[in-house]
Structures are given as C-alpha cells and as structure tokens.
Amino acid sequence: MSFPSPLAQPDHAPATVPPTAAASRSLPVPVPSRGRWALWSVGVVLIVLAACLVAYFLTFLGAAASVIAAVLALLPLAAVLTVIRIIDRWEPEPRGLIVLALAWGAVASVVIALGVDLLVTLVVEPGVPDALSAVVQAPIVEEVAKGAGVLLIFAAARRAFDGPVDGVVYGALVGAGFAFTENILYFADSLITGGAADAATTFFLRGILSPFAHVMFTAVTGFALGLAARAGRRGAGALGRWSVGVVGAIVLHALWNGSATFADFLGLYVSLQIPLFAVFVFGVVLLRREEARLTRERLSDYADAGWFSRAEVEMLATRPGRTKAIAWARTLPGDRAAAMRRFIAEATALAAARQRVITGRDPRAAADELVYLERATAARRALLSR
C-alpha cells in the first residue's frame, strides 16, 4: 500500500488546515491538569517512604542480602515491564505516570501492607494463623492498597486514563512494582535462612513461574476503572466500578494463595493458573483491538469534517497502516520516520481527546481537542515539508 504524498485535507473539505505557525511560535500544550499537584505531592511522599523502606531492608535483612535480592527481583520485573510496554504501545502513557504507578506499587502498597500486618500482630493475640493471613488478610489488604494507586491516577490524571487498556496498564504497573519489592523480601529471607539453594527455589517459584501474578490481580482493578472512564463515570459511579474490580482482584489473589496453602500448587498451577493467564492474554488482545477500533472511529469524525482523508484514517488507526506509513516515511528525503511517528502520536492523542469530549468525564477535554488538532496538523506539515 502506498500513501499519497499530500497528506492534507481534500480540496472540498469544509474546514481548512490552520496556517503554518510562525517559526518562533512553539506548539500549544494542553493546560496542566488540576490533579498534577496531588500527583506531585504523592510523589514526594513516595520518595520519603522509599527511604524508610530501604532503611527497613538494611536493618532487618542486611545490606548484602538486600542487594542480591534486589538484583534477582529486577529480572522478572524487566520481563514484566517489556510485556506491559507492548500492551501500551498503541497509545503510550506518560512516563511520569508510569513511574508513579510503579512507585506506588513498590513503595506505598508495601508500606500499607506491612503497616496493617504489624497492627494486626499487635492487636490480635497470639496472631492471625498463617493460612488465614495468606488467603484472607493478604489479598484484601494488598489489593485495596494497590487499587488505591490506580484510583489515584484515575482521579488526578483524567486525560491519561481513557479506557480499559489504560486501566490494565496502570494496574499492571502497580502490581509489577508491588511484586518487585515483595520479591526482595522473599528472596532475601530465603537467602538468609536457607542459603543459595533456597533462594534459587524461591526465585524459580516467584520469578519464573509467577512473575505476572500480582500484575493480573491489580490489572482487574484497572480494567474496571477503565470501563468507568470509557463510560464517562465519575464520583460514586467510578468508585462503585473500582470496588467491583478490587473484589475481583481479591478473589484471584485469594485463589492463588489458597492453591499454595491448601492444595497441590503445581497441579493447580497447570490446570487453573495457566488457563487463567491465557484468558488474561486473550482479553488484552481483544482490548487492544477495541482501542484501535475506537481510534479509527474517532478519527473518522474528523474525516467526515474534512480534516483527514479516508486514507489517512486507515494509515493512522490500523497497525498495518502505521507500519507501512513509517516504512514509506523512511523513503522520503532525510528519512522522516520520526516525523511520521509524531504525526501518528498526535493523531492518536487527538482521537483520545475526542472520546473524552463525548463521554463528558473530563471538562477540559474540549480544550485538549483543539490543542491536539493543531499539533496533528502541524506534525503533518512537518512530515511533508520540503
């Protein structure tokens, strides 16, 4: 498939492409969200809590065990983040929110879980039985703590939380962060109490067999909030969806822990957990397709108004179209693949802003739509400039 060189509006279009901006004028940027201050404040708190967590590790686990365990925990984390990046490739989330989601899972969720565990130990004598703690207390406390981070992003970063795929990505990132810190605790404890052999066994069980466990649990919460975002829910409506998602995450978490506590873990792992993971992967594929379909639908709105041609919509809103467009851009003078990627990114952001206008969840979406429309047309001009 080849694309016409003039990627511009049809001559008969009712609208016209805005004139080229003056060279000294930078492209407009969306007005910062009011929730940015809340996110920055949370970021500062997370830094403080991270320092406390490091001190805790060094005090109770020792420097050597903590460092070795952290290096081991990085291996499954890297694999998980690679998969999440693939899921997030269609409309990548802001890097700051990616870091925040990871940090919430790795720091805040762990601190909350440890704090509750300490409180229960002080209040309940002689302590909660291990089985009850693993199957009831841990799933409830950990999934509520992790889910709170996803809810924070949903509430404070509306323009970056458009639908189910975004929710799955943020939930997965929070779960990945939590698993990273929890793995440090488990790996270090095994190394201290049982030596390298026990640490290797623990790494196999947690780092090889189940690196996506916490990712899947909290992704359920994110998926529920993503549905709320897609439906334009706010306030109590969104909180209700969040609660349903947290319950689903708790059930999956309890099922996972219960299989290790009361049953043949490896048997249930093969017969139940692997099929559940396959369903999860299949569901993500379907969500990705729906995200592409919605991008195509929203860009078609602009095609109806004359801002894009139908060929452009196919190019911008389909995976094969994007691949061929970037390959075509490489044949232009100076290799303009990067310019094509910018055009695709701005058009995708434009489609997302349009969807937020339709749902009505984000009162600033209409202003964002105008910004991204100007940025998309400017990116197209830059791509085709001689």
Unreliable stretches: 1-24
Structural class call reads mainly alpha
Helix content: over 70%
Describe the biggest sheet?
none
Report how far apart the termini are: 23 Å
Describe the structure.
- The structure is a single chain.
- The chain has helices at about 35-60, 65-85, 95-125, 130-155, 165-210, 215-230, 235-260, 265-305, 310-315, 320-330, 335-360, 365-385.
- It has about 375 residues and is mainly alpha-helical.
- Helix 2 packs across helix 5 (about 165-210), helix 9 (about 310-315) packs across helix 10 and helix 11 (about 335-360) packs antiparallel against helix 12.
- The radius of gyration is 24 Å and the shape is elongated.
Q: What is the strand and helix layout of this fold?
A:
Elements: H1 36-60, H2 63-87, H3 95-123, H4 130-156, H5 164-209, H6 213-230, H7 236-261, H8 265-304, H9 310-317, H10 319-330, H11 337-359, H12 365-384
Helix pairs in contact: 1-3, 2-5, 3-4, 3-5, 4-5, 4-6, 4-7, 5-6, 6-7, 7-8, 8-9, 8-11, 9-10, 10-11, 11-12
List the main descriptive attributes of the protein structure presented here.
386 residues; mainly alpha; 77% helix; 0% strand; disordered N terminus
